[in-house]
Specification:
Blueprint (H helix, E strand, L loop, with lengths): L5 H15 L5 E9 L5 H4 L2 H8 L6 E2 L4 E3 L2 E10 L1 H10 L7 H5 L7 E4 L27 E3 L4 E2 H5 L2 E5 L2 E4 H18 L2 H20 L14 H15 L1
Parallel strand pairs: 1-5
Antiparallel strand pairs: 1-4, 2-3, 3-5, 6-7, 8-9
Helix pairs in contact: 7-8
Length: 238
């Protein structure tokens, strides 16, 4: 969903960004996560997601239109410069599953975000990356009005996939919370260690599976390598 005056606002932001940083790589006009221009005091629960994703930048406001976000997610609305596209092709040639987590975590990217966001995801649709299609039983309410993150969408968001096993955000949080509750209720050292192991395994897998240089995209094992090769060829001939 685009804000009213999207084209004018985007044009003004790009013009200002070119003046502030001629070497810019990425301008996010829509994102999730730790992207509020007010910084840490406005991130809320997004901090947990950012810590799991890693590679947190130092947030700073550049102007009323532009800021550097701490840890963005999602690829529904962004602008790339030629240098940004080249960096992403080199750093994430074959990203596994959550390409947005890998891409926006590339430290060398000169990455910026508009203030306010100019585009938001339309909630309620089916996931295109493996989430369960029907989650109407999950309550629907707004988690973050700034980014447009909605609970049902976040609950059903895929976290990682190993073979046929799909771990969604809801399954991850529920299983971790249940183990924590049982460990505290029973005061069981074994359950406590099991809880720590389960949380640690999830964190390790999420970060380990961000980018696999010798791997393939989960949903389309053959299209991504050809697409990357074609993009490299076009860049070489340009």
């Amino acid at each position: 969903m685009l804000d009213a005056g999207f084209g004018v606002s985007l044009g003004a932001a790009l013009a200002e960004l070119r003046e502030l940083d001629p070497q810019w790589d990425v301008l996010l006009v829509g994102a999730m996560g730790m992207v509020h221009p007010k910084g840490w005091r406005a991130y809320g629960a997004n901090i947990l997601v950012g810590l799991v994703a890693g590679t947190i930048r130092s947030p700073r406001v550049l102007s009323p239109r532009l800021h550097v976000p701490a840890r963005p997610m999602c690829t529904h609305a962004y602008v790339l410069s030629p240098s940004g596209a080249a960096k992403l092709l080199a750093a994430c040639p074959r990203a596994n599953y959550h390409v947005d987590v890998a891409a926006w975590g590339v430290r060398s990217l000169n990455l910026y975000c508009t203030s306010p966001l100019l585009a938001k995801q339309a909630g309620g649709g089916h996931s295109t990356i493996g989430g369960g299609a029907d989650r109407r039983w999950v309550p629907s309410f707004m988690l973050d009005s700034y980014t447009g993150a909605e609970f049902r969408w976040a609950f059903n968001g895929p976290v990682l996939q190993l073979g046929s096993l799909l771990l969604t955000m809801g399954r991850s949080v529920f299983s971790s919370a249940l183990l924590t509750f049982l460990a505290l209720a029973t005061r069981s050292t074994l359950l406590g260690l099991l809880t720590l192991c389960w949380v640690g395994i999830q964190l390790l897998l999420i970060n380990a599976l961000k980018v696999q240089p010798r791997g393939y995209v989960v949903l389309n094992r053959h299209a991504w390598p050809r697409a990357s090769a074609a993009a490299h060829a076009r860049e070489k001939n340009a």
